[in-house]
Amino acid sequence: MPSQPSKTLETFDNPRPDHDYTIRIEIPEFTCLCPKTGQPDFATILLEYVPDRQCIELRSLKMYIWSFRDEGAFHEAVTNTILDDLVTVSRPRFMRVTARFNVRGGIYTTVVAERRAPDWEPTTPVALP
């Protein structure tokens, strides 16, 4: 197999560190295992962030997300782990990870976790008519 799952996340220099802008990444094929039953859990992960000096490199993100496929994890734990790992490597001004897990036993679970740099203030949204 030419590519393998990996916990190594890579970044690249933000081409516009002088601007606040939002990067949104949707990952519809996240899979991990239920730590109680070993059955697969499926989710869509939405990553939203305002980069500072570094941006997340997408190929490494794909391999990183793939690395959870055979790991048992509670929804809350895996969402916060993903956020912590991404914040550690990229040090964004703001980052939010939303994990929308598919139904299991008649229950949908959505976990939202976010971090904000202590010295960052978001710009005021513009409301257009």
Structure, explained:
There is one protein chain. With 129 residues, this protein is an alpha+beta fold. It has a single domain, classed as 2-Layer Sandwich (GTP Cyclohydrolase I, domain 2), CATH 3.30.1130.10. It has two helices and six strands, in the order ββββααββ. Strands 2-3-5-6 form a four-stranded antiparallel sheet, covered by helices on one side. The chain has a two-stranded antiparallel ribbon with strand order 1-4. The radius of gyration is 16 Å and the shape is globular. The relative contact order is 0.22. Belongs to the GTP cyclohydrolase I family. QueF type 1 subfamily. InterPro entries: GTP-CH-I_C/QueF, NADPH_dep_7-cyano-7-deazaG_red, QueF, QueF_type1.
Largest sheet: 4 strands, antiparallel
Strand order within the widest sheet? 2-3-5-6
Number of helical runs? 2
Structural class: alpha+beta
Q: Please give the radius of gyration in angstroms.
A: 16 Å
CATH class: Alpha Beta
Element order: H for helix, E for strand: EEEEHHEE
Overall geometry: globular
Bin the strand percentage. 35-45%
How far is the first residue's CA from the last residue's CA?
A: 53 Å
Helix content: 10-25%
- CATH homologous superfamily classification: GTP cyclohydrolase I, C-terminal domain/NADPH-dependent 7-cyano-7-deazaguanine reductase, N-terminal domain
Query: What oligomeric arrangement do these chains adopt?
Result: single chain
* CATH architecture descriptor: 2-Layer Sandwich
Q: Say how many strands there are.
A: 6
What's the mean pLDDT score? Answer: 96
Total separate domains? 1
What name does CATH use for the topology? GTP Cyclohydrolase I, domain 2
Organism: Methylococcus capsulatus
Catalytic activity: 7-aminomethyl-7-carbaguanine + 2 NADP(+) = 7-cyano-7-carbaguanine + 2 NADPH + 3 H(+)
InterPro entries: GTP-CH-I_C/QueF, NADPH_dep_7-cyano-7-deazaG_red, QueF, QueF_type1
Keywords: Cytoplasm, NADP, Oxidoreductase, Queuosine biosynthesis
